[in-house]
Design brief:
signal; 12 helices; BUG; D-Maltodextrin-Binding Protein, domain 2; alpha/beta; ten-stranded mixed beta sheet; about 45% helix; 2 domains; TAT_signal; Bug_dom1; 10 strands
Amino acid sequence: MPFVSRRNIFFTLAKASLALAIPSATSVAWAQDDYPNKPITLVVPFVAGGTTDILGRIVADGLGKRLGRPVIVDNRGGAGGNIGAAFVAKAKPDGYTLLMGYNGTNAINPSLYRKLSWDPIQSFDPVSLVARVNNVVVINPKLPVNTLPELVTYAKANPGKINFGSAGAGSIFHLAGEMLAQQTGSNLTHVPYKGAAPALTDLMAGQVQMMVSTIPTALPFIKANQLKAIAVTGAQRSSVFPQLPTAAETGLKGMVVDSWFGIFAPKGLPEPILSKLNKAMHDVLADPALVKVMKEQGAEPHGSTPAELAALLATDLKSWREVIAKAKVTLD
């Protein structure tokens, strides 16, 4: 029997342990090819009931059907979406934790909060754009106005009596309200809420008098005559409310504010998984039934490549940084 030194035995055992501890390239590739083999979590960084949540649930259902695994919506609201975004930023980049992002969180918050624990570019890999959504100016039906110019006239004649709600301080809806006040010289008081749903509830109750909201969130209440829509703030009229003028058409040329929504993953997502998710998203957004549901909600489905979503984010980061600096709004 040959002599085996203790040193040789040690190195043999060490190599065996290392081989067990570090997965081989083959095993990693297999894990990617096998994706997904368990449920996926889609984090919506807002409470239930808002547009991000509505679209997130539509996307989750579609993705689940195409990927063959459940996609579970996890509402992690708070801090204008920062809590949910931070959770995803710290998650393992394996495709099992995704973020339902929107330009309010991903493109606006970085200019509002100086101490974010995540970075809009360095913390996430863009997967695909989901939809663009027009925003609508809604008022309490008891307010004696029917158009945006009439609202401005009323606000000037009744200084301090028009409170506008928003989904949170620094949200795109807060900034849209501030934009309206600046461009018209109106005295409007901002009242922030922890999401769009509670803000709309108080608007219907008359606690606030107006709000800028995404159409999907406000639509059921407009249809039920619990809210009155007087204008949209997108670049074009909405297919849901073709009779409503844009804010620009009423004379506010600089007030063009819409919302976009997209899927993001933690930074470092393997390319095979990113490609699989992107393809699945395109399949979801090509489904006529899903497109119909989104359009009925006031959303325009838009898929994209990861690079296209990255470019859109970069453009919005710059433009909103300038708007926020001019308005001198910070939340730290």
